[in-house]
Write a structure and sequence with these properties.
It is built from six helices and no strands. With about 140 residues, it is mainly alpha-helical.
Length: about 140
């Protein structure tokens, strides 16, 4: 091996050693946030209310007196306790939160569908979509 070849191999080795590692990609699917509010229990419980009740239901609870709120939460806890043993497990609470979030998504999809299905035939044509979304005239 000549000196030139040795220097070339040494230079390439140094280049490979000193190169920046490739960017690490996050390959984990993360669940969406349960609320758009800041999760800071020291300041407020708004995030928890949205996650537990769903955003729309949480808005109605904001309007209730503490007594009414306590009574309605008691009824909800009865729904969360799937096995009716008088205790709410972590699994039951997780299932309820997922249920509340899915319910909101389904209701939002239904509302969006009605807003786009201008002739109320149960189908959304491209013309209806353009009109509802971009304001084109049919």
């Amino acid at each position: 091996m000549t000196v030139a070849q040795l220097l070339l191999c040494l230079s390439l080795s140094m280049l490979c050693i000193s190169s920046k590692p490739t960017e690490r990609k996050d390959r984990v699917h993360h669940d969406p946030q349960l609320s758009d509010k800041v999760h800071d229990d020291a300041q407020s419980f708004d995030y928890d209310h949205d996650a537990f009740l769903g955003a729309e239901e949480a808005k109605t609870f904001d309007q209730l007196t503490p007594e009414e709120s306590k009574e309605r939460l008691g009824k909800i806890v009865g729904k969360i306790d799937a096995d009716k043993d008088g205790l709410v497990t972590v699994e039951e609470l997780k299932a309820w939160i997922k249920f509340a979030q899915k319910r909101w998504i389904y209701e939002d999809v239904e509302r969006q569908w009605k807003g786009h299905d201008l002739n109320e035939d149960g189908l959304i044509s491209w013309e209806e979509y353009k009109n509802a979304t971009y304001g084109y005239i049919l």
